[in-house]
Amino acid sequence: MTSRAQLWQHLAASLSTLVDSLAPKLDEKNLSLLRDFIDNREYGVALEWLVSLIKTHSIQISSEQQQEIDRLATTMGLSLDG
Q: How far apart are CA 51 and CA 9, in angstroms?
């Protein structure tokens, strides 16, 4: 990715796809919050919130979803181990 705008577009699309794939397992309030974070380019907050929801509510995710979470965290330079 050569520009910040391209990176933002990539992160927004990837996070939206990930959130949409988990939408049936999320309540409306948290789903709305996640979409607001993405709309406001708060991508790190969105990913951290999503991971927190997955852990707190013991949401089962696929290996592909976990790989996408890991890839996005790496792209954003986030450590989600906490």
A: 21
Residue pair 49/33 in contact (Cβ under 8 Å)? The answer is yes
Residue whose pair of structure tokens reads 């699309």 in the numeric block = 13
Tell me, yes or no, if the pTM score tops 0.70: yes
Q: Which of the pair, 62 or 81, is modelled with greater confidence? A: 62
Alpha-carbon gap, residue 24 to 20, rounded angstroms: 8
Alpha-carbon distance 32 to 27, whole Å? 9
- Cβ atoms of 32 and 40 closer than 8 Å: no
In this prediction, residue 82 carries a pLDDT of: 52
Question: Radius of gyration of the chain from Cα atoms?
Answer: 12
Boundaries of every domain in the chain: 4-76
